[in-house]
TrEMBL record:
This is UDP-glucose 4-epimerase. Pfam families: Epimerase. CDD domains: UDP_AE_SDR_e. It comes from Methanoculleus thermophilus. InterPro entries: Epimerase_deHydtase (IPR001509), Lipid_A_modif_metabolic_enz (IPR050177), NAD(P)-bd_dom_sf (IPR036291). It comes from the Archaea. Residues 4-239 form the NAD-dependent epimerase/dehydratase domain.
Length: 313
């Protein structure tokens, strides 16, 4: 198969592109390297079945050029940060909504039958019902969550109007190798690991009792491929299906890394949700998804990667 991976130089996209190459597919990566890094794909970029196009999903002509003859698009490109969207909602709107509509339109123009796209658990906001299931009414709390929800609605409308199969995967908190620990907006696990590696205390925003449903990146990769191959359409939660609070997470990481540095606490961040836990039964029924990695196993792999890759500084 010939697959397009937008955002394929990013954390999740590069892990996905690598697996698709390993599975024998042809892969076209479209990425503007805004938060992604060429280093993430340096081991596959010279592969005869890999093409890298440096460019933006806001560029429709570029997407239409890239999509010719493709069997499917994995759309991962986005401004993937709640705080960044709070600071600059216009940019998030242009890339996440504009880019997604472009990807869908390019699929239509090029006759690409299927788009599997990254959505987010942030769509559920602070609804007190747990676990979160896909029929719940969305209550986005940030421009980022609004942008992802709009993408889902566009996906449904493009399915209905133009017959493109669209699947939106609501990732919960993804972690694993290549996740960027350095940006101001970095996710909690790479931040904790790299601070502990530097002998510094992890920083927790809030009291640390907020919970997250973490999922290892290779489980997310498998979910994408299962969704594409199964032909399932609609919206699906992709998560570990278990939750842990940030105080426990810091303790777990300390144990795995053999360090005991207590966290320090700072004020909660605007737009962050308090708790998160997914019902993953819809994805299990539709395309056989269930996580293969236990949380501690994924954490161990991630710690090893950060230690060995020397990539965190
Ligand atoms: N990491 C998570 O926990 C998580 C959770 C929910 C949803 N998601 C979604 O998963 C997807 C991948 O996120 P990630 O964590 O790998 O983040 P990431 O920042 O590592 O990856 C995003 C990639 O998209 C690229 N990109 C950004 N704007 C672009 C543009 N205009 N044109 C082309 N490429 C562009 C970036 O350079 C980067 O390579 C995103 O859609 C994100 O919203 C991630």
């Amino acid at each position: 198969m010939r697959y397009i991976v937008t955002g394929g130089a990013g954390f999740i996209g590069s892990n996905l592109a690598e697996q698709l190459v390993r599975d024998g597919h042809e892969v076209v990566i479209v990425d503007d390297l805004s938060t992604g890094r060429s280093e993430n794909i340096k081991h596959i970029i010279d592969h005869p079945r890999v093409t890298f196009i440096e460019g933006s999903v806001t560029d429709l002509a570029l997407l239409i050029d890239a999509c010719g003859g493709a069997d499917g698009i994995f759309h991962q490109a986005a401004i993937a940060s709640v705080p960044r969207s709070v600071k600059d909602p216009l940019e998030t709107n242009a890339v996440n909504i504009g880019g997604t509509v472009n990807v869908l339109w390019a699929a239509k123009e090029c006759g690409v039958p299927a788009v599997v796209a990254a959505s987010t658990s942030a769509i559920y906001g602070d609804d007190p019902v747990f676990p979160k299931h896909e029929e719940m009414r969305p209550t986005p709390l940030s421009p980022y969550a609004v942008s992802k929800l709009a993408g889902e609605y566009y996906g449904k409308v493009f399915s209905d109007l133009y017959g493109i199969r669209t699947t939106f995967l609501r990732y919960f908190n993804v972690f694993g190798p290549r996740q960027d620990p350095n940006s101001e907006y970095a996710a909690v696990i790479p931040k904790f690991i790299t601070r502990l590696l530097d002998g510094k205390p992890p920083i927790i925003y809030g009291d640390g009792e907020q919970t997250r449903d973490f999922v290892y990146v290779l489980d997310v990769v498998r979910a994408n491929i299962l969704a594409m191959e199964s032909g399932a359409t609609g919206v699906f939660n992709i998560a570990g299906g278990r939750r842990i609070n940030l105080n426990e997470l810091a303790r777990n990481l300390g144990e795995i890394m053999g360090v005991h540095t207590p966290p320090i606490y700072e004020p909660p961040r605007l737009g962050d949700v308090r708790d998160s836990l997914a019902d993953i039964s819809r994805a299990r029924v539709a395309f056989g998804y269930s996580p293969r990695y236990a949380l501690k196993e994924g954490l161990r792999e991630t710690v090893i990667w950060f230690r060995d890759s020397g990539r965190y500084r």
